[in-house]
Design goal:
single chain; 240 residues; mainly alpha; 8 helices; 70% helix; elongated; Tetraspanin/Peripherin; glycoprotein; transmembrane helix; membrane; Tetraspanin_CS
Length: 240
């Protein structure tokens, strides 16, 4: 039953990667409007679920008993392999689109900031600025062009721009040394591209493993077809 254990383990890892993408995307979804970017994560979770079901059924017992079971297993692995290749291709396509998507939406998100915690866009900006240690789109001076900055009229940026080590920071632009100097746009793009790379590498790794699995299964299938003694050895049978 080693095959079943492998499939369940592979399913768990693939589902974990897919879930990680969903959870992380939720933190950055205001900066990325194209929900189709989640397609690779959806597919990889679906593949993981399929492998988990196959593992629970215990397909390996069937494989050892019949040539038909082995052929079915090869076909399933082939379908999963093709699916993971599709995930890799889609991952690269959407990874290339990240920069344009963020560039298109980030200005609108910053203009919608109102500084109140219940507001989803405001929470997203404060989270990103604290998490990525950045301020503004390109730097902290971008805040001067926002509606929120003009309405507050206190010449300061949100407290999420303050360096984490400083407890007395007020966000005032008169003390720029207290603020994160790097802009958020480049860091958000980098983070989203890293997330997509996790999906790509996971799909590539399991595609390579499954390719080896298919080769091994095909070798066994060919030997069974050509050598009856090998069939008896695998199944534990004996000559009459």
């Amino acid at each position: 039953h080693d095959c079943s254990k492998y499939l369940v383990a592979a399913a768990g890892i693939l589902c974990y990667v897919g879930a990680y993408v969903f959870i992380t995307y939720d933190d950055y979804d205001h900066f990325f409007e194209d929900v189709y970017t989640l397609i690779p994560a959806v597919i990889i979770i679906a593949v993981g679920t399929l492998l988990f079901i196959i593992g629970l059924i215990g397909c390996c017992a069937t494989i050892r008993e019949s040539r038909c079971g082995l052929a079915t297993f090869v076909i399933i692995l082939l379908l999963v392999f093709i699916t993971e290749v599709v995930v890799v291709v889609l991952g690269y396509i959407y990874r290339a689109k990240v920069e344009d998507e963020v560039d298109h939406s980030i200005q609108k998100v910053y203009n919608g900031y109102n500084g109140t915690n219940p507001d989803a866009a405001s929470r997203a900006i404060d989270y990103v600025q604290r998490q990525l240690r950045c301020c503004g789109i390109h730097n902290y001076s971008d805040w001067e062009n926002t509606v929120w900055f003009k309405q507050t009229k206190n010449n300061s940026v949100p407290l999420s721009c303050c360096k984490a080590a400083l407890s007395n920071c007020t966000g005032s632009l008169t003390r720029p040394m207290d603020l994160y100097s790097e802009g958020c746009e480049a860091l958000v793009v980098k983070k989203l591209q890293e997330i997509m790379m996790y999906v790509i590498w996971a799909a590539l790794a399991f595609a390579a493993i499954q390719l080896l699995g298919m080769l091994c299964a095909c070798i066994v299938l060919c030997r069974r077809s050509r050598d009856p003694a090998y069939e008896l050895l695998i199944t534990g049978g004996t000559y009459a």
